[in-house]
Design brief:
This protein is mainly alpha-helical. Helices cover 57% and strands 0% of the residues. The chain folds into two domains: 42 residues, no CATH class; 117 residues.
Length: 219
Amino acid sequence: MLAARASLLALCLAACASQPTGMSLGPPPSDPDTPYPAGCVDNMGRFMNMSYEAFDQDFSGGWRTIAKTDGCTPAAARLIADYRNYAMLGDVRSLYWHEAQLRASMGETAAALDLFRITLAMERHLAGPDDQTDTFYNEATIAFLEGDRAKLLSARASLAAVPKPDGFEEGAEEFRKKYPEAPPLVWPNNLNVVDGLIACFDKPYKEAYSSACNDWPKD
């Protein structure tokens, strides 16, 4: 029952708009691997991380800046669809993720994978070009649950290669001062978790994710 519900969520996120229900919800979300037309949207992540007010209510910003560019009206329409389907779900993304982790810990792998894939679709649209750590971490987790070691190692390499953003050390120091009892911030986030999944590849997710297989901190 739970796996079926998760499958339905994934199906709706990806394609419910195209279902013959008698009421169209617009086109399905675009493929994040398909680039926008050149000269229209060069940094989709910037738009996906805007507040609703900045994206839709600013008459000199947001999607309107794309729509006003010659030949970019289709790109603006797609941008609005992607914002509706992904950015507006961003607030619940962590709920999908944490439920997926609990399902995986209980051995409900199929349901967990459905939920992880939903968050991956969101992350691919929300991630900026300079920080795809969550995307690669999710890909690694999915690869582990699928039993695909080669894909897991590839995701690990991608995660490790994400450059440290400017100001990270300063931010980490401020975090340490504000939360002295919390684990320190490290870069890239969750690389240690992925290393644990690799080290305990043949173990259940609950064990591979635990401190028995990797060093803290982790999300």
